[in-house]
Design goal:
GO molecular function, one term (chain A): mRNA 3'-UTR AU-rich region binding
Helix content of chain A: 25-40%
Structural class of chain A: alpha+beta
Number of helices of chain A: 12
Helix content of chain B: 25-40%
CATH superfamily of the largest domain in chain A: GHMP Kinase, N-terminal domain
Number of strands of chain A: 17
Largest sheet of chain B: 5 strands, mixed
CATH topology of chain B: Ribosomal Protein S5, domain 2
Largest sheet of chain A: 5 strands, mixed
Strand order of the largest sheet of chain B: 2-3-4-6-5
CATH topology of the largest domain in chain A: Ribosomal Protein S5, domain 2
CATH architecture of chain B: 2-Layer Sandwich
Oligomer: heterodimer
Radius of gyration of chain A: 29 Å
GO biological process, one term (chain A): exonucleolytic trimming to generate mature 3'-end of 5.8S rRNA from tricistronic rRNA transcript (SSU-rRNA, 5.8S rRNA, LSU-rRNA)
Strand content of chain B: 15-25%
Number of domains of chain B: 1
CATH architecture of the largest domain in chain A: 2-Layer Sandwich
CATH class of chain B: Alpha Beta
Structural class of chain B: alpha+beta
Pfam families (chain A): RNase_PH
Order of helices and strands of chain A: HHHEEEHHEEHEEEHEHEEEEEHHEHEEH
InterPro entries (chain A): ExoRNase_PH_dom1, Exosome_comp_Rrp42_subfam, PNPase/RNase_PH_dom_sf, Ribosomal_Su5_D2-typ_SF
Organism (chain A): Maudiozyma barnettii
Strand order of the largest sheet of chain A: 1-2-3-9-5
Number of helices of chain B: 4
Chain lengths: ~400, ~230
């Protein structure tokens, strides 16, 4: 500055409106805000955005009954569960659809019967995770562009898939299909028998097909009006949507249960088993069984070093350039909850992401160093906050 | 691994979608009568922060969200004296081909009332998301879609020459402008047109609905203006 003053060129200070400064120099804008004690969004440091959660709206089976097993019809709708989550200005719409897959892989119980113990040992370490299942998420972030999915969409989808699998929320058993049998009576009336009662069990076990099926769940997660990182919103929305999932009961026609066809091909006779067509009952559905104590909600945090030079109070006091600055005393790291907005997203490189159950168990914990000094206190504080946040969201989901 | 799309986690290829047995439709005529009635939807604009304009139209059967991006520079190197409009419609219920066709139909409709000359070398991208229950053919939704796009354009501050709208009657979705004196688009999903007079009746019914929609839109915009003023 001193050099410029000596030359003839006069420099006039240029001032910008806040929103323009935030775009030109997000770093400075953020630091100035923080020095005043709040964030660009005028939230406090540890203040989360408000969350509004609505589940089951898009599934149209809202006339839910409290008796868990038999819920009213879902009218043949393909969407099994849904959630609309609004956090700040961001909307996340999650729709869960389903499919059915024939189980070809042997479950661990089936494997025990086989003598190949070596194989068992190898699979043992993996078997823990094979008991659990995940949904196949496709995240779409609407930002007015067409074409292939972006890196962010891909990584978010992958992270959701992995986190769900490893958080042990969804078991393979919960997705197992127990097909009923559709029986045509003598008087041409049709009824479907499910293996619920003992009596029905006998009938269905007689007619039961030998194959096994599982449900496959897909999640389509659409993000509207993205203003910041979206992972925790997607996760929370997925959690809420999963809790609203109603799996339709399936049945198989009695005639198809042991249908075999002899096919003559190139002079040889071969028996082809009919591929079963499982049909879904539009009138009967069951709630998806989740492991309640594993249901968790995500929250994210950022850590940023406060820049002493951007401190406005400091600036006014120490107009004198030569004033001594005690660097070590001045640098202070603060924890910001629920990162949002362009400035915070671009400037905060150190992030903490925690997925916690309301009861205090943790499902995921990740810290990205990124330059800021993450201290023990910061980590502990973020853990406390994540627990509070998680129980807060779980209350909101339960209310729905 | 899925060979078709490695970018997305689409799940095992062998999985089949859930199949429901065909439900016997309970008296089609009855549903048709219910549908022809226009239900005044709830309207909300300026919903999304990362686009220029947005509007959501909702009633108990539909939720149509339009987001308008633009006018923004296009990537093409050619000089275009007029603005290019692009409409993309997303829905899980209707087949993509049908949605694309509707998209190009809507582009034609939009070109007749958006002041394209004011935005040279620019593009306006319209994205419409349908979160709907399938109650009827695509044509039934067109009045709502039109309404959502028009209000989205107003929200984005894009100049349009009129508040156009669309009416639905007897499988016809007819778009009007200039208080019903001009037809700017006709969409028909199925069925033959019996004769001129039946089409004329249908046109009149659509026009009536258009006027009703126009009233709704004008009311909404005026009340919004008042709200903004008081703020």
């Amino acid at each position: 500055m001193a050099d410029i003053k000596e030359s003839t060129v006069e420099v006039h200070p240029v001032s910008f409106p806040t929103d323009i400064l935030a775009r030109i120099s997000p770093d400075l804008s953020l630091q100035r805000h923080l020095s005043l004690g709040f964030r660009p969004s005028s939230r406090g440091f540890e203040e989360f955005r408000d969350v509004i959660i609505n589940t089951g709206d898009l599934t149209h089976n809202t006339q839910s009954d409290d008796s868990a097993v038999k819920t009213p019809s879902n009218d043949g709708k393909q969407v099994l569960g849904s959630c609309v989550l609004k956090q700040g200005d961001v909307f996340v719409i999650t729709q869960i659809t389903g499919g059915i897959i024939e189980d070809i892989t042997l479950s661990t119980n089936d494997m025990e019967m086989e003598e190949d113990t070596e194989l068992l040992e190898i699979t043992e370490e993996h078997s823990d995770i094979t008991k659990y299942s995940s949904v196949y998420p496709v995240v779409e972030i609407n930002r007015g562009r067409m074409g292939a999915c972006t890196d962010e969409e891909m990584t978010t989808s992958q992270r959701l898939y992995d986190s769900l699998l490893h958080s042990h929320i969804l078991t393979q058993n919960a997705l197992r299909v127990e097909p009923g049998v559709r029986i045509t009576n003598e008087d041409d009336s049709v009824n479907i028998i499910y293996p619920d009662s003992e009596k029905n069990k006998e009938i269905t076990s007689l007619l039961k097909p030998k194959k096994k099926w599982s449900y496959v769940l897909y999640a389509k997660i659409e993000v509207f009006g993205r203003t910041g990182p979206v992972y925790d919103m997607c996760w929370n929305s997925l959690m809420a949507a999963l809790q609203s999932v109603k799996l339709p009961r399936t049945f198989i026609d009695e005639r198809a249960t042991d249908l075999k066809m002899t096919v003559r091909a190139r002079g040889r006779n071969a028996v082809v088993m009919e591929t079963y067509n499982l049909l879904c009952d539009p009138n009967e559905s069951t709630n998806l069984q989740l492991r309640e104590n594993c249901i968790s909600y995500a929250s994210s945090y950022g850590a940023i070093n406060l820049d002493p030079e951007a401190d406005i109070a400091n600036l006014e006091e120490t107009d004198d350039v030569d004033a001594p600055m005690d660097e070590e005393l001045e640098t202070k790291t603060v924890l910001l909850a629920d990162i949002d907005g362009e400035a915070e997203e671009t400037c905060i490189k150190s992030t903490i992401s925690i997925t916690a159950c309301p009861n205090g168990r943790f499902k995921q914990f990740s810290v990205v160093g990124g330059g800021a000094k993450i201290t023990k206190e910061l980590l502990m504080r973020s853990i406390t906050l994540s627990k509070q946040r998680s129980s807060d969201i779980s209350l909101k989901v339960q209310k729905v | 691994m899925n060979v078709q799309d490695r970018r997305r986690i689409l799940g095992p290829i062998e999985a089949r979608p859930l199949a429901f047995p065909e439900v016997k439709s309970n008296s089609k005529e009855e549903t048709a009568v219910v549908l022809s009635e226009f239900q005044a939807p709830s309207i909300q604009t300026t919903l999304l922060k990362n686009c220029n304009g947005s509007c959501i139209i909702e009633n108990d059967k539909t939720s149509i969200l339009s987001s308008i991006y633009g006018p923004r520079s296009t990537r093409s190197n050619l000089f275009e004296a007029r603005c290019l409009i692009n409409v993309t419609i997303k829905s899980t219920i209707f087949p993509t081909s049908e949605l694309k066709e509707l998209g190009s139909f809507l582009i034609n409709v939009l070109e007749s009332f958006v002041c394209l000359e004011l935005y040279p070398k620019a593009g306006i991208d319209v994205f419409v998301n349908l979160n709907i229950e399938k109650v009827c053919d695509l044509s039934w939704y067109i009045p709502y879609i039109m309404m959502s796009i028009v209000l989205g354009l107003v929200d984005a501050g894009i100049e349009i020459s009129d508040l156009p709208g669309c009416g639905f009657n007897d499988n016809n979705a007819i778009c009007f402008t200039k208080n019903g004196s001009e037809v700017i688009g006709i969409w028909r999903d199925k069925g033959d047109i019996e004769n001129e007079s039946s089409f004329g009746d249908s046109l009149d019914a659509c026009k009536e609905q258009y006027l009703q929609i126009k009233g709704l839109m004008a009311n909404y915009l005026l009340s919004k203006l008042d709200n903004d003023k008081t703020k």
